[in-house]
Amino acid sequence: MQAARSEEDASVQSVPEWLVPPPEGFTAEDLDRLPNLPPHTELIDGSLVLVSPRKAFHTLMMFVLEAGLRRMVPRDLRVRREMSVILGKRQRPEPDLLVIHADAAGGTEETSYRPEAVELVVEVVSPESDERDRERKPQLYAKAGITHFWRVENRSGAAVVYVYELDPATRAYALTGIHHDRLKLTQPFDIDIDLTEVERL
């Protein structure tokens, strides 16, 4: 019994200090000051979410979308990759891609943006985060008033993009299109991206 308790105590002591939440849970500001925090750590409902290694589809799809958005984005908007958005005291997710207003871009030391600065968020669904990417994070983005949301799915190596727009009356996203092969839109600006490019990279 004593040996079992000692092993349990040793296990607790081996947990990094930054991983132990305070009694009230972590806050959005904690992500900027916790030491040794792994890259791309998110805060969802006051809990730290650690990101698993990315699969090739995820990385390549982000490259295709980022390059396409940068080619077409108007001068008053900017494209950002893997930057967090502070949605509330206990909510700081990190979308895969964002389109933000240029006047809110700030300098090179920025670590996050406010939801009012964000026009579009994009999540490329990963197997280990599918519930967050499909359910919880869209709920949070919609509640914060972010107008446009894309969810990107891997269908046997081919990309499928689900495009949503915020219904201001319900503060929920409405599906406006499902795109295979080509993503052609007029909102939030004119967009034409060849989704099959991911299969040739």
Automatic annotation (TrEMBL):
GO MF term (any one): endonuclease activity
Claim: Nuclease is one of the keywords in the record: yes
InterPro entries: Nuclease_put_TT1808, Restrct_endonuc-II-like, Uma2
Domain Putative restriction endonuclease: 29-190
SUPFAM superfamilies, per the entry: Restriction endonuclease-like (SSF52980)
Key words, A-Z: Endonuclease, Hydrolase, Nuclease
Pfam families: Uma2
Protein name, entry field: Uma2 family endonuclease
